[in-house]
Write the structure tokens for this entry.
Amino acid sequence: DQQVKQNSPSLSVQEGRISILNCDYTNSMFDYFLWYKKYPAEGPTFLISISSIKDKNEDGRFTVFLNKSAKHLSLHIVPSQPGDSAVYFCAASAQGGSEKLVFGKGTKLTVNP
Amino acid sequence: GAVVSQHPSWVICKSGTSVKIECRSLDFQATTMFWYRQFPKQSLMLMATSNEGSKATYEQGVEKDKFLINHASLTLSTLTVTSAHPEDSSFYICSARRQGVVFFGEGSRLTVL
């Protein structure tokens, strides 16, 4: 049973446009969510997180939105840059982030120049 | 800069030998570290939680005797793949939590011939 789902395995956008990556979860105990970016043969790099007490968190070009009622979160990247091309993983945790992370399968983002 | 460091970044070994991978938290103490495995085009699979000064907690289906974890200090956890076989070839990644955020090491690519 997959508790964190990233239903789009890939996404392609034009440079300068907005990239929207989606993530759904099923476990209502999850209350802390993170997005990671990963290049091939490298460990994931932390991008941004959000606690369930918020519905939006912004950091530069990255904004994460959380819709608790829909058990859905999204990562917006604007403007998208070619260097953003990577695999993006959504992760969730319970107990305010102290529990282990559960990852989605990732979405491969390609930003075309 | 890096928050969590792994070594070696890649290793090739013969079948039947053992391989040790180190994970270090840089400039902070980590009582808990996590070991993941990533198969090609798949998500990160949590293998075990490494606890400083005590036994590791393994996820279901992960062989404890095959993947030995030692967390001897607050900044170092090691994963030893014992009697490695070609099916153990994979990308192993460790992580540690600092101030609520989980940071990952660079990953270690293991190839067993």
Q: What stands out?
A: The radius of gyration of chain A is 13 Å.
